[in-house]
Amino acid sequence: MHKTTVNPVACAVVAALAMGAQPAFADGATNELAETESSIGLPSVEASVFYSSRKIERGMVENPESVFGYEAEVEWNGLFIGVEACYDMTNVDGRRGRYNEIETEAGYGLKLGDFAAKAAYIYKACGGDEPNTQEVELEFEYDTPWVTPFLGLNCDIDKWSGALYGVFGLRREWELVEGVDLSTHAGIGFGNPRRNKVDFESDRFAFRDMHVGAELEVELCPHVKLVPCIDLYDQFTSAGRHAYRKGFVAVAGVSLCVEF
Fold this sequence. Notes:
Elements: H1 8-41, E1 44-52, E2 55-57, E3 60-63, E4 67-76, E5 79-88, E6 99-112, E7 115-126, E8 133-142, E9 148-156, E10 164-177, E11 180-191, H2 193-200, E12 206-221, E13 224-235, H3 238-244, E14 249-259
Antiparallel strand pairs: 1-4, 1-14, 2-3, 4-5, 5-6, 6-7, 7-8, 8-9, 9-10, 10-11, 11-12, 12-13, 13-14
């Protein structure tokens, strides 16, 4: 019977190579593969509750009363779906506890280098005598080392079909200290004749509002943030000022956010 002779030197070399290769693969390629699978397979979830001293919509006061509400969004590879609702906190007009608006949306967002875009379909269920409606919303922004220009467009496709509101402006973010970020923004809103006619009886294209604001994002613990904010609005048009009995409005709010 033939007996195979084992070379002890060759065995030692093979064992050493195997021992050296295993950690490199485990710490490098395996981790990279796990991160790739995680980013592809797991959605991100964000939920928050908020308070606001007024409800602003399309740059104007939609509800002068204090409101509280909640919002939640699930995002996966650019696809997202979300819901937002707000409720009156006072009993003006007997509306305490009744929702002012429930908004659901679904859409897709993408990022190409410094450019980002988002498109969404929105269904609004409105409280009181205001009818429900549907909208399409588009958002664009471009990051630069100094500021981020942005443009937002909102078009009604149901009750007030063709009513278009837009806003363009600039945003800037700073990291004050670890876990505390400051964001500031300024913008100008505009509406087409259909939108302005619905909102304040003006049948012409016009710049409607200007606003500035800031929010402070404080990380309380991993995945949990407290975000106080303040916004200042003023109306360009005399029709807008007359419809809401004032031009300048200050709005303060705070939200508690959880992200996974």
